[in-house]
Amino acid sequence: MATQYKQPKERQPKFLLSKLFTDAEHVVEPEEKRKVVAAGMTEAAPAPKAYPDTFFKRAFAVSRGEMSVLFKTTIWFLAISLLFIVGTLLGEYYLSDHLLGGNYNFMAGIGVGYPGVGDSIQESVSKLYGEVKVYIMLIALGACIIASPFLSGLMYAAKRAFFQETYKYSIRTFFLGFKKHWWKYLLLGTLTAGVLGGIGISILKLLSAQQLGGATALDYCLAIIPAVIAFPVLAVLFIMMGLTVTHDLTFGQVFKNAVVILMNNLVFAPVLTVVTIAPFVLFFVMGFPTNILVYLIMVAFGFSLFSLLWVAMADRGMVKCRMLKHDVEKKNLSDSRKAQKSSFQQQADYTAKKKPQQKQQFQNPKKKKKK
User: Fold this and answer.
1) Phi, psi angle pair for 26, to nearest 5°
2) Are 236 and 263 within 8 A, CB to CB?
3) Closest of 190, 187, 204, 185 to residue 281, by C-alpha
């Protein structure tokens, strides 16, 4: 018995939400005017460096190789980010003292000199989550909104470093990016702050209710469901921050392409979103010394590294979508040709069937025998 081998099925390329995708090239940035050093001669442009071609490896390599340049370029953003750390730390100190107070009596009714009315640890912790932490988060979100327009200069500098569009004048380069994109980042930063604030406050309210033993199913739903819905929204907003500076697209096209990139990069984009949110979560969960350490790490290289990673994500997403679009078009063209060929073959078979057959000439059987 002959063994039958099944021919493997041809892989069908899938390009989700392909109708929303708009292909575009990288934005070509203006070159800096070079200083004239002699008659008819200008100073040489900085030589570009060799970095890996893969997207995220390149981002890490550029972060190491261009750390000093990026730090000098984004010093204005780092200065504005001080509002975040100063506002949260001072807010926590003064709000804790004002709302919670510093004198606690946990010995109520135990013996002589201890009155019957005292403080409750559960009520104090509940107030810490439900009031103090909520106000601190609102202060931090306000600082993020104020700093968000300056993020445009940081992302612009990261984009130029990633694609090795060399420059010499750091501050001028930063404010060129600010001038081109500040209102877009103000909008994106405000939306990001609103989404993070909504999630954070709902979680704090849940923790406050848990301390008093009054957490209901509704409290859990109000904390979990918005977080699940908000996660892809944050991923889209972060991708938009990268696309805004990397590719020549309108703001509406940036939004649609960001959605397409997320749907076709369901591993890298969510993982990078989690990594981006993690320092902010750590900042609010941990205490004072850890908060300072997290902020110093972000200032030293965290902000520039995350900017490079989202620039790399935007570029990778556009390249992948472009390839998927080409594969789908190629597959559709191949299927169209196969269908056309099959149609021609069916037409030929049908014509052959309808063609009248030639009638055989009658031959007398008796004459045939005589031969």
Assistant:
1) -65, 150
2) no
3) 204
DSSP summary character for residue 19: G
- Residue 118 CA to residue 108 CA, distance in Å, equals 5
Judged against a pLDDT cut of 60, whether residue 332 lies above it is answered with yes
Report the distance separating Cα 66 and Cα 143, nearest Å. 27
How far apart, in whole angstroms, are the C-alpha atoms of residue 296 and residue 290? 10
Amino acid of residue 254: V
Least confident of 107-111, 169-173, 188-192, 227-231: 107-111
The token pair at 347 is: 């037409």
Residues in the chain: 371
Q: In three state form, how does the secondary structure of 294-315 look?
A: HHHHHHHHHHHHHHHHHHHHHH
Q: Give the phi and the psi of residue 36 in degrees, each rounded to 5.
A: -80, 120
Encoding tokens for residue 182? 């500040």
Give bridge partners of residue 36 from the DSSP assignment. Answer: 42
Q: Which residues of 39-77 are buried (b: 16+ CB within 10 A; e: fewer)?
A: eeeeeeeeeeeebeeebeebbebbbeebeebbbebbebb
Q: Residue 14, Cα to own-chain centre: how many angstroms?
A: 21
- Count of alpha carbons within 13 Å of 187, Cβ hemisphere only? 9
CB atoms within 10 A of CB 310: 26
Torsion (CA) 211, 213, 219, 223 in degrees, nearest 10:
30
Rounded-to-integer distance, Cα 232 and Cα 218, Å: 23
pLDDT in tens, 114-137: 555 555 677 777 777 888 888 888
The answer to which of 35-44, 45-54, 147-156 has the lowest mean pLDDT is 35-44
- Token pair listed for 127: 């107030």
Quick one: tokens of 172? Answer: 């001028």
Q: Which residues contact 204 (CB under 8 A, 6 or more apart)?
A: 129, 130, 133, 134, 137
What is the C-alpha end-to-end distance of the chain, expressed in Å?
51
At 66, is the secondary structure helix, strand, or coil? coil
**Which pLDDT score, from 0 to 100, does residue 320 have?**
93
135 membership: H or E segment, kind and range: helix 133-162
